[in-house]
Amino acid sequence: MSTATPIVKGRHGRSRASRRLWSVLGFLVTVVTTFLGLLAITFFIGRVVPIDPALAIVGDRAPAHVVERVREELGLNLPLWQQFFIYLKQALTGDFGTSVLTTHPVMEDIKRVFPATVELATVGTIIGAMFGVPLGVLAAVKRGSLIDQLVRLIGLIGYSVPIFWLGLLSLVFFYAKLQWVAFPGRIDIVYEYTFTPVTGFFLIDAIMQGEWEIFWDVFRHIILPASLLGYVSLAYISRMTRSFMLNELSQEYVIAARAKGLSEARIIWFHALRNAAVPLITVIALSYASLLEGSVLTETIFSWPGLGLYITNSLQNADMNAVLGGTIIIGAVFIGINVLSDILYRLLDPRTSR
Question: Higher confidence at residue 347 or residue 219?
């Protein structure tokens, strides 16, 4: 009996390790397949749209032999499968071609504008989480009450009302009428040519350089579009927080804690919310990713010089290299945040790694 036990334990250990290995491999295959699918979709979109990349470069009035030469240089005369493999190789190395609009490499343009989008989405997510989590907890604790109905109504409005309408309305009210916020843009023109950003995140750069006047100017520019995105994020986070908390408050450990005489506040904030925080991290991460990819309309309305506005301007000027490059970057970031949230979920909840 004493010799059989270690053998059984060893088999169980190897089987568990084997399951974890296959789980990791399957996860990696899913991520790679998703990214390749993203590249394939963007490639075929670039070939299906009625825009000739060669004509976009040389113009409609260029001679036919010039257009044909540019098509050969771009590889557009090759079979479709060869074009795809060339596109795949270039995309994996970060080469998305040259922007027709700016005449710069697309990757350089993205490096220049993407920090503005990240800063806007980050502030928006902080606002959404800071207000959405407490509201969701409050709605769950006061289930069926007027407070619960009010929180659900706030979330419903955030889901239903078009963001461009909210953006225009907020500009009319907070900028034109009350003048509480600055003119659309990222920074006042007075500081635009005197302020030298280091990281590309203006709020952080202003703090690092001790430029508090510029910091408050940047803050007055970002607060309205970030609040708008934060409200959209709040609607999703509050609804999911309410659902998670309702599930936790019905568990046996909550009943046992109440029987032991623990205060209601301690049960809610230190026990129920701590257990609900595991899936909530995934929700906040996905909300952040959605703000990164869904801020196109917000950036356009508020003239925010981020990736969304860059893609919009490129699309209006038939600059497909820039449009597809920006789409790939947003998709890659979305996949990356999904991977990170899944890893965090597995680390914080050991039950998922069994």
Answer: 219
If DSSP states are collapsed to H, E and C, what string results for the chain? CCCHHHHHHHHHHHHHHHHHHHHHHHHHHHHHHHHHHHHHHHHHHHHHCCCCHHHHHHCCCCCHHHHHHHHHHHCCCCCHHHHHHHHHHHHHCCCCCECCCCCCEHHHHHHHHHHHHHHHHHHHHHHHHHHHHHHHHHHHHCCCCHHHHHHHHHHHHHHHCCHHHHHHHHHHHHHHHCCCCCCCCCCCHHHHCCCCCCCCCHHHHHHHCCCHHHHHHHHHHHHHHHHHHHHHHHHHHHHHHHHHHHHHHCCHHHHHHHHCCCCHHHHHHHHHHHHHHHHHHHHHHHHHHHHHHCCHHHHHHCCCCCHHHHHHHHHHCCCHHHHHHHHHHHHHHHHHHHHHHHHHHHHHCHHHHC
Cα diameter, the chain: 89
- 20 contacts: CB under 8 Å, gap ≥ 6: 353
User: What local confidence, expressed as pLDDT, does residue 121 receive?
Assistant: 92
pLDDT at 1 > cutoff 50 = no
Q: In terms of Cα–Cα distance, which of 120, 116, 167, 99 is closest to 306?
A: 116
Candidates 312, 324, 310; CA nearest to 49 is 324
Distance CA 212, CA 312 (A): 32
